Amino acid sequence: MAKAVAVLAAALLLVAAMGSGGASAQDCDSSRLADCAPAFLFGVTPSQSCCDKLRLEEQRGCLCVYARDPQYSGFLNSTKARDALAYCKVAYPSC
Predict the structure, then answer these.
(1) How many domains would you assign to the chain?
(2) What is the pTM for the complete model shown?
(3) pLDDT tens digits for 37-58?
């Protein structure tokens, strides 16, 4: 139970840190990646929902937006995030 609470708290912190105010013309909203917080923060296997959302963000071109933004890049450039992208078969953005 405590682990679940910690994961939920970390997910909420990630969403708060990434915010939704950085939306671009492509309508990028980092809060859509909240399902990926456990994978990005703790290295757990990404959920199917996380993988689906990563694929959608990739199609929208949003991963490049996040990779270029100092507010988001630390999360996306982490080893755990790269592992999650690889697991989901989503290419790391080469922007």
Answers:
(1) 1
(2) 0.70
(3) 999 999 999 999 999 999 999 9
